[in-house]
Design goal:
mainly alpha; 5-stranded mixed sheet; globular
Amino acid sequence: MATASPTASRTVPPGPPPAVPRPPRPAGTRLPRPPDLVLAGFVCFLMCVAWRLPWLGDLGQHAAVIERLTQDLTDPGSPLVKRPGDSSPYYTPYTVLAALLARLTGLSAFATLSVCAGVNGLALVVGLRCFVRTLSRSAWAPVCAVLFMVFLWGTHLFLWSGHTSLSALCLSLSYPSTFAFSLGLYLWARLMRATRGRAGVRHWALTGLLTGTLVLIHPVMAMGALIGCAAVCAGTVRGRGRHTLARGAAATAGAVLPLLLWPYGNVLSVPDSSALDHFHVSAYQAVPERYGLALLAVPVLLLRLRRSRRDPLVLLCLGTAAVAAAGWWTGHYTWGRVLPYLMLGLQCALAVEVCAPWPRARAARTGHALLAALLAVALPLGAWAQAGTLLHLLPAGALPRAFTARVQFLPTWPGWEWAMRHVRRGDVVLTNHYLASRMLPGYGAYTVMPAWPQPEIPAAESARRATDVARALNGRTDAFLRRKAVCGAKADWLLLTWNQSIPAGQGFFTVATGPDKSRLVRVDLHC
C-alpha cells in the first residue's frame, strides 16, 4: 500500500503578493522640490498677514485712494481732501486695478487691500526667486535670499514703506511700494535672461512697457529699480551693434508709451517733490543699528568685483549707495528710498556666495567657513529684532510672557468705527488728531488738512488749509475767528482731542466720545 510522503502532506504557506507596478508619471509633471516647498511655506505666512492686514502707517491713505476710485473712476478728485481734480500721483495702475476689483466684487477698500497684500506676497517671492536663479544654479539660493531679505537688517526695529524686513513687510504688504519692488525684481530677471540670450525686439518692447508701468505705480521706488536695470544691462550687454540699438530703442519706446498715455496726471513730478524729503530723513538715522547686519556682504562684494568688474550685484550696490549718499549730502532725503535695493543687493550676494560650491583652495575654504559662522550669529540677532511680527498674527496671551515683555514691537492702531457710525462717506472732518487724520480717510471721510503731502494741491491752498485747522482748534483764538475758520474749511465735523475746546456759540453738538477721550462734534453753522 503506498503511503504519502511527509513532504507531500505539508501545507505550503502563501508567499508575498506579486508587486504591482506603479503607473507611469504623466509627462511634464514633477514633484515639488524641498526649496520650493520652503518658499511656498513663506508665501502661506504672508497670506496670513494679508488676512489680518495690520494697520500702522499709510494704510488709510491707500484705502482712501481705492475708495475715491471706487466711487468715481473717471473723476475721483483728491484722495484725502474734498476738492476737484484727478491728477493725484496716487492714482496708478495698481490702485485703478484694485478699485476695479472692488467695483466688480463689492468688496470694501480694506478687503480689497487684503487681496492686494496676498498678490504682493506671491509676487515678491516669485520675483526674488526668478532674479536669484539668474545669479546662481543652486535651488537653495532663493531660499537663503528670502531668509536674508527678511532678517539681515539690523538689531533695532525700523518700519518703513518699501523695506523688506519681516516687520516692515507685514505692515506694508498691501502697499503699491511692495508691488513695485516685486515688479522690479522680475524686470531684473527678465533683463538678465534677455541680455544673455537672443531675445527679440518684441521681448525688449514688453520689458520696456513693464518698466514704464513700474514708474507709474511708484515713481519713488522706481529710482532703485531703474538703477538695477542699468546695472544689469551694464554688466551683461556686450557690443553696440545694430541689433543692440534696435532692442534698446524698442525698450525705450515701450517705457515711454504708458507714461504718455496715462490719464491721471504726471507722476514724474513726485521724485522731485521736496515736500516728501522731511518724511524720509528718518531713513538716514541710526544706520548701524538698522542696517548693520547686511554689511557682512561687503567682503563678498569685493570678491565678486575681483572676479568681474561688471558684476551686476556690485554695480547695483554701488549705484544705489551713490544715490543714497547724494540724497544725504544734498538734503533730498526722498532718494533714500533706494536703500531697500542696496540692502537687497547685499543680501543676494550673501545668498549666492553661501550656496556656491565649496571651494577647493584652503584660503577660500577658510573664508567660506568664516562667513558661515558670522551668518550663524547675525541671523539670530536679526530674527530677534523682527520677532515682534508674531504679535501681529497671534494674541499676546498665546505667547510666553518673557517673549512679549522683551521683544521689539510697535502696536497697531485702534479702529475708528465709533466715529464712523455718525460720519458719512464724503463728509469733511476738521482735526489735527494724529491717528484720526491718518485713518478716517480710509473709511471714506475727508480731512481739511491732509496727513501726507499731496502734490496736486497748490502750496497756497495747503497753507490756507493749515491755517484754518490751527485757528479753528486754538482755544485762545477769538470765537468769531474760530467759527469763521470752520466755515472756511467747509467742515461737517470737528474731531477734538481731550484738551481741545468746542468753539463758543451755537451750531456745535457733541455726538460721540472715543476711547482716548477724543470727541466727535457735529457742525451745524449757517456760513
